[in-house]
Amino acid sequence: MSRSLLHLFLALLTGLGLGLAYSWFLSPVEYVDAAPAILRSDFKDQYRIVIASSYLSTQDLARARARLELLGDADLIAELSAQAQRMLASGEPFNKAQPLARLATDLKQGYASAAFTPTPIPAFNTPQFEVTPTFVEQGGETTEEPTTTPFPTADFEQTPLAPIIAETSTPRPTFTPTSGPGAPFTLAGQETLCDPALQTSLMQFMFSDSRNRQSAGVEIIVTWNQGEDRFFTGFKPELGNGYADFVMQADTIYNIRIVTGGSFVPNVAAPICTDPNGTNYPGSLLLTFQQ
Amino acid sequence: MIKIAVALAIGMALGLVYGWVIDPIQYTDITPNLLREDYQVDYILMVAEAYQQDFDAETAARRLAILGSESPASLTTSALEYANRNNFTPNEIQTLQSLLTAMQTYQPQGAGSQ
Questions:
Q1: Does the beta-carbon distance from A24 to B47 stay under 8 Å?
Q2: Residue A58 touches partner B, C-beta closer than 8 Å
Q3: Domain C-terminal end among A89, A109, A129
Q4: In a domain, A245, yes or no
Q5: Which residue in chain A is spatially nearest to B92 when comparing CA positions?
Q6: What CA–CA distance (Å, rounded) separates A208 from A243?
């Protein structure tokens, strides 16, 4: 009796094993209606880029957030920033990573910043000349003299202006002069940060525009005797839109060039700090730039 | 013998139920062509919205290509049909229509050269 029970039990186990093998390996459940959260990581990256590019067009922050949440990231802003930094590190141009940084910045501040609308630059017809060499005989010798023929210019028709129905006098707003987006950044402050807990010596940057708003997308080039690094503000929005940092080595002199707006700060080095035991260690620097 | 066959069958049935229903294989690295239809359409809508900003047909076609082997125009047509069936806003339909026009006239680089 017990022997036959054992046989039954073994048959049940064998059947169970066969059933599992068939359902897991031979004919597993096929996914056809999957959610973006289980996309492969490179496709998730592509999905994020499309979300950010779409956001540049629509400025619909709530929808962009909802779309990002589909990807199941624990921290939407950190993931966007990390991807932007990965793209820059792999040599992708800034304008490809910029939508990600922009979306991260806007998600952090909770509202859409000024819309990015590339304004078409009106094309002006510059006078052009066609140079035609002509040959002039002078005393038996032939010399070449260029003569210029202007290209024909296109005629433009003036679009009739709409008739003015009524003329009302509207007081104009007073003009407050402010620095434009291309105004240079100048070094407004340099602060030494001594924290023995920090493992690295950081050159930290903080950029603000003329209205004291932090400036994202400022390009910085740091050069030293063995190399050069190039980076942008705004890729760590958790630390501020105008923030960027760079890891310094002790006993190295750095030159800083602010590409956006043009500015140069030479001979910057990691400061020397002293801990309570009297031991020296390289500290960090906070460089504040103001437009 | 019959009892053993019945036990084997019951075991197999239990195994199938467990493997297909209770604890099916979890996929984690799927490709976008396996996304549910509404997610695919929303992705195409995002591509269309981005196209409204940069008017870069090459980039739009490349972005659509991850959805499978269908042509970008065919994918956009399907998305437009879905949008019409599911009451998308006129603005969204117009955006998809613009992308469709671009994809119908889009020629991949080098396609015309022999």
A1: no
A2: yes
A3: A109
A4: yes
A5: A58
A6: 9
Give chain A's domain count. 2
In SS3 terms, A88-108 reads as HHCCCCHHHHHHHHHHHHHHH
Q: Tens of pLDDT along B18-36?
A: 888 888 877 778 889 989 9
Q: What is the DSSP string of B9-37?
A: HHHHHHHHHIIIIISPPPP-SB-GGGB-H
Residue A33 near residue B28, CB atoms below 8 Å: no
pLDDT digits (tens, 9 = 90+) for A134-188: 444 444 444 444 444 444 444 444 444 444 444 444 445 544 444 555 678 888 8
* Domain span holding position A93: 38-109
User: Is A33 part of a structural domain of the chain?
Assistant: no
What are the φ and ψ backbone dihedral angles of A182, each rounded to 5 degrees?
Answer: -95, 5
Which residues of chain B carry a pLDDT beneath 50?
A: 112-114
Query: Tell me, what's the ipTM?
Result: 0.82
Q: Is residue A178 part of a domain?
A: no
In this complex, do A38 and B29 lie within 8 Å of one another by their Cβ atoms? yes
Sorting pLDDT into bands at 50, 70 and 90, what band is A1? low
Q: Cβ of B19 and A40 within 8 Å? A: no
B62 has a chain A CB within 8 A of its CB: no
